[in-house]
Amino acid sequence: MNKQVNVRLELGRRLIPAAEAWRLDIGGVVELDRQADDRVDVYADGRLVARGQPVVVSGKLAVRIEEIVSPYAGSIR
Description:
By secondary structure, the chain is mainly beta. The protein has a single domain, classed as Surface presentation of antigens (SPOA), CATH 2.30.330. Helices cover 6% and strands 38% of the residues. It is built from one helix and four strands. It has one helix at 18-22; strands spanning 7-10, 40-44, 47-57, 60-68. A four-stranded antiparallel β-sheet has the order 1-2-3-4, with no helix packed on it. The longest helix is centred in the N-terminal third of the chain and has 5 residues, at 18-22. The radius of gyration is 15 Å and the shape is globular. It starts with 6 loop residues before the first strand and ends in a 9-residue tail after the last strand. 5% of the residues are buried.
């Protein structure tokens, strides 16, 4: 079976007032709740399945998996 899943990477979060969000512009900076060397969370179909480090592969952003979080991660294959 070749089921496709939606994969989302989360670098961090921050809650900001709507007025501040509407003032965001090119070049603006939004600080997140994580340090620059923290791992990113990897979600598959909305479920946290792994954590890893951001890397660049052939000029594209990628994630090197360092930890499997969900005991059901094997079921998405």
